[in-house]
Amino acid sequence: MNNSYVNESIRCTVNQCKNHAQSKDNCALSSILVGTHEHNPTQDQCTDCKSFQMK
């Protein structure tokens, strides 16, 4: 993963993610997949970044 790329459209503060841009609080991917672990999500805590990869 080339983490020198900064996608200004995707903000991210999860430094433990392999896709974190490192130089800024952004993602280094061109797009991400957001999903849920709930049958009927009602709060932001119910959503997940499915593009997350542990460093």
From TrEMBL:
Cited InterPro entries: DUF1540 (IPR011437)
Pfam families for the chain: DUF1540
Record-annotated DUF1540 domain positions: 10-52
Protein name per Swiss-Prot or TrEMBL: DUF1540 domain-containing protein
Native source species: Aminipila butyrica
